From TrEMBL:
The gene is moaA. One of its GO terms (biological process) is Mo-molybdopterin cofactor biosynthetic process. [4Fe-4S] cluster 2 binds at residues 287, 290, 304. Pfam families: Mob_synth_C (PF06463), Radical_SAM (PF04055). Its cofactor is [4Fe-4S] cluster. Keywords: 4Fe-4S, GTP-binding, Iron, Iron-sulfur, Lyase, Metal-binding, Molybdenum cofactor biosynthesis, Nucleotide-binding, S-adenosyl-L-methionine. This is GTP 3',8-cyclase. [4Fe-4S] cluster 1 binds at residues 47, 51, 54.
Length: 360
């Protein structure tokens, strides 16, 4: 089957002026004209799973606690992002963000912030759902708007092999709790790997459609343990669509996807109907529409998941910098954002930090 995935337009690379802020207020613009409004905050680099595509089984070097941002430091940077730099969405991630005990406090304080047009900012969580059954309601009460929950298989043995932990039942409990307390839509993220979980594609689609969740299949990216990723082992978006087409009738959804990474498909079968997203990060990069800025657990700004340099706002903060100076440094860091992630370039070099240490 031949499929068409929407390709984002790469904007002009012509410099559009220096990213100067006025008295520390402005926007996170880069030299290609993209403006970052979506902040990803990694709240910890630790995790209770060890997904093979994300972390090695052993030997991770954790960020020492004194190097990690405190709650007050995280919240100060989020306030600077929203109040001075025009950020409108904050997504909490990791590592596993539910391992941060103060998550509810951080969410509640962030949810009080307003965008420049006076609307509440949008708050979101990316999580493996372990333990969410006990915290879904408190997180919702704290003002969390959206959840993306990761699940790569419905087979307990495969879950154990893939995450190196026997926790499938807990993950499903967490997903069901998110639905029960009213998060809508609950999105489920699935990374598809050759010879590992291709046979889960259709069962996961049924699982999500049955529950009214939006499943998003993600192409595996070279951001996990070193030398693990091989292009020829990657399951492409086209292949995933081909697998789904054997069970479902699929038509591209007409809604424009904007800066959202997933191309949406309307899927129907005699029993199910809904929407499934395909995130073709490798074969159809969406860098041209990227509106993200990332803050690591230890307070560094990364202008791209695949960036090779970082700017430590923690060091500035701890040296006594005021908010305007920190905002300037953040804007400067984003100004240097590369046009694309470069995965498809033969000279591509994987960054030193893995996904769990950057914040997915
Ligand atoms: N622990 C949380 C979770 O798993 O949802 C949040 C952090 S995790 C790094 C964020 C997302 O990144 C997950 O959906 C995970 O599947 C995805 N991810 C991790 N490594 C990846 C890789 N090499 N390629 C594509 N996606 C990856
Ligand atoms: Fe943990 Fe998420 Fe990485 Fe899996 S993908 S090891 S759950 S951080």
């Amino acid at each position: 089957m031949s499929v068409q995935l929407a390709m984002p337009a790469i904007r002009s690379t012509a410099p559009s002026g220096q990213p100067l802020l006025r008295e520390g207020v402005g926007e996170l613009r880069d030299q290609c004209g993209r403006v970052a409004k979506d902040l990803r905050v990694s709240l910890t680099d630790r995790c209770n799973l060890r997904c093979t595509y994300c972390m090695p089984a052993e030997g991770m070097e954790w960020i020492p606690s004194e190097e990690a941002l405190s709650d007050d430091e995280v919240l100060r940077l989020i306030r600077i992002a929203v109040n001075r730099l025009g950020v409108e969405q904050v997504r909490f991630t990791g590592g596993e963000p539910l391992m941060r005990r103060s998550l509810e406090h951080i969410v509640a304080e962030s949810a009080k912030l307003r965008t420049r047009t006076g609307k509440a900012i949008s708050t979101a969580l990316t999580s493996n759902a372990l333990g969410l059954d006990k915290r879904a309601q408190t997180l919702r009460n704290a003002g969390l708007n959206r959840v993306n929950l990761s699940l790569d298989t419905l087979d307990p043995q495969r879950y154990l092999a893939l995450t190196r932990r026997d926790r499938l039942a807990d993950a499903i409990k967490g997903i069901d709790a998110a639905i029960r307390v009213g998060f809508s839509p609950v999105k489920i993220n699935t990374v598809v790997m050759k010879g590992v979980n291709e046979s889960d594609v259709v069962p996961l689609a049924r699982f999500a459609l049955q529950r009214g969740c939006q499943l998003r299949f993600i192409e595996q990216m070279p951001i996990g343990p070193r030398n693990l990723w091989k292009r020829e082992d990657m399951v492409t978006a086209e292949e995933i669509i081909g697998m789904l087409s054997e069970e479902f009738s699929m038509t591209p959804a007409s809604v424009p996807r904007g800066s959202a990474p997933a191309a949406l498909w309307n899927v129907t079968s005699s029993a199910y109907q809904g929407t499934i997203g395909i995130i073709a990060s490798v074969t159809h990069p969406f860098c041209g529409d990227c509106d993200r800025t990332r803050l690591t657990t230890d307070g560094a700004i990364r202008n791209c998941l695949f960036a090779h340099s970082e700017t430590s706002l923690r060091d500035l903060m701890r040296a006594g910098a005021d908010d305007a100076t920190i905002a300037e440094a953040w804007a400067q860091a984003m100004w240097g954002k590369a046009l694309g992630h470069g995965i498809n370039d033969p000279a591509f070099v994987q960054p030193d930090r893995t996904m769990s240490a950057i914040g997915g």
